[in-house]
Automatic annotation (TrEMBL):
Name of the protein: Centromere protein v
Keywords: Metal-binding, Zinc
One Gene Ontology MF term: metal ion binding
Keyword hit for Phosphoprotein: no
Pfam families according to UniProt: GFA
């Protein structure tokens, strides 16, 4: 981790074998940054503990992003990224160019399990019940906000948008 000016930090990250390497800049840094622990099928299966990032907050090293293998399901609009050599789950690429993102939608959901040298027991987790709240697999919300709670006008209740699906906030 490299501390930066203000309340941000840069973390080196990658897969187990070193084929995929990158760094992420979080503001606020861990452990103040909220990490999402969702029980939906993909998050459980991949072991995701997710932080959401803009494109410019992720720096792929040695052309690592194209080296990732991608798995798509449901809407086929986002890539579940993993290493083709060791199989480590990296996170989610929402495949949104910043130009198509006027409302601050995040570009990546990166699993903190890929961050080198962090203590997972010290992090600030928000549990999401994606298993029950996202039961309708036909849902395809294109609006993804920061992981902060917001008011969804269609539901009229506090919600968090996770993996492109709205789930109730805790």
């Amino acid at each position: 981790m490299t501390a930066e000016a203000g309340s941000s930090a840069t973390y080196n990250a990658g897969c187990h074998c070193g084929h995929i390497t990158f760094s992420v800049t979080l503001s606020p840094p861990l452990p103040e940054q909220q990490v999402f622990n969702c029980n939906c099928s993909i998050c459980r299966s991949a072991g995701y503990l997710i932080v959401y990032l803009e494109k410019d907050e992720v720096e792929w090293h040695n052309d690592s992003r194209p080296k990732c293998m991608n798995y798509q399901f449901n809407t086929k609009k986002k890539d579940q990224m993993f290493c083709p050599k060791c199989g480590v789950s990296i996170g989610i690429d929402f495949r949104r160019p910043k130009t198509e993102d006027p409302k601050g939608k995040k570009a990546y959901g990166i699993s903190v399990r890929t961050f080198y040298g962090i203590d997972l027991d010290t992090l600030n987790y928000q549990k999401l019940d994606g298993l029950n709240q996202c039961a309708d697999s036909s849902l395809d919300f294109v609006s993804f906000n920061s992981p902060d709670l917001d008011l969804d006008p269609d539901r009229g209740s506090p919600a968090v948008r996770h993996n492109d699906v709205i789930v109730d906030g805790a």
